[in-house]
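# nightly structure sweep
# worker-07 picked up a monomer target from the shared queue
# config: single-sequence mode, recycle default, output format = structure tokens
# input follows
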Amino acid sequence: VHTVPYGELKSLTNHSRDWVIVKLEFLVTYDTDVEVVRKLIKSIGQEMLEDPELGPNLIETLKSQGINQLADHGLLVRAKFTAKPGEQFVIKREALQRIKRAFDAAGIKFAYPTVTIHSTAGGAAPPAEAVQAAARMALRTPAAGATPALDGAAAS
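# output follows
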């Protein structure tokens, strides 16, 4: 905590006075065609720019920044836009909704933690108890930065 008396303040800078940059991140599966993602996000950005309610509040349209990270469970893709201060929340909500719909329509899947169990029993499927134990274990100890899926772990 830094305490600065008002009398010692000479000047202040408000970094969001004129614009706000919003960065969005999406974790998609490794088999995703990133060029398709880029084109979808560009198209959504153009649609939002032409929207009579959203367009006037966009300073720079939504655009893809490509792969930001090769994560444990998929590709971390980033996008960003620049908006007028105070308007970024409505634009962000709309961008996320449009991206979700576009990804669903294009068959692009969001990545999430999964559990894969390999059996050494001569090709036989592992016992159901082993599958359940592995799923419970994965939910207790997620990978760094991951949020466990609470609707059930996928096992194969």
